[in-house]
Amino acid sequence: ALPTLAIIGRPNVGKSTLVNRIIGKRLAVVEDRPGVTRDRVNYRAEWAGRDFMLLDTGGWEKNVTGIDLSVAQAAEAAIELSDAIILVVDATVGATSTDEQVVRLLRKSGKPVVLAANKVDGPQGELEAAALWNLGLGEPYAISALHGRGTGDLLDAALAIL
Ligand code: GDP
Ligand code: MG
């Protein structure tokens, strides 16, 4: 089986935009795997000559148990299913308590993580991205999932730990 890279993070931070960028612009979609829930969609992807599965986690906000709890539960499930993780944080918002909750889950899991500081659409956002060093996950990779800025470096880092 191919290794699985999961994209996790709070609702609205840009996870699906990042997935679309990876599979739609620079990587080929080979299959939409059947039998997965709407909350977790697996795509076959390729980067730098390596094949892997890309796991998009969505619909977390639909849970009735409250956003923070549903995020934690969905993150736990995604972490369990993955070999490595990209944690996406909205750099324009900064780290929230929900982000910190997910970071604690990631630490407990011991799974390798790369931190994506998303919505850095231009150089003026770099300072906000650097503030995310505080999450303790190492270098925040400043990206714009929307425009593609920095996503190549992020993927190189993610594949290095996958
Ligand atoms: P998800 O809930 O984490 O999957 O987030 P989405 O991918 O659905 O994105 C949520 C919103 O953020 C959408 O309006 C996106 O267009 C926007 N968005 C995502 N990435 C970026 C980015 O890099 N820059 C900006 N400015 N907006 C973004
Ligand atoms: Mg989404």
Automatic annotation (TrEMBL):
UniProt gene name: der
Species annotation: Demequina capsici
Family, as annotated: Belongs to the TRAFAC class TrmE-Era-EngA-EngB-Septin-like GTPase superfamily. EngA (Der) GTPase family.
GO terms under biological process: ribosome biogenesis
Residue span(s) of domain EngA-type G: 3-162
One annotated GO molecular function: ribosome binding
Record's subunit section: Associates with the 50S ribosomal subunit.
Binding site for GTP 1: 9-16, 56-60, 118-121
Protein name: GTPase Der
Keyword line: GTP-binding, Nucleotide-binding, Repeat, Ribosome biogenesis
Full-sequence range covered: 62 to 223 of 499
Protein task: GTPase that plays an essential role in the late steps of ribosome biogenesis.
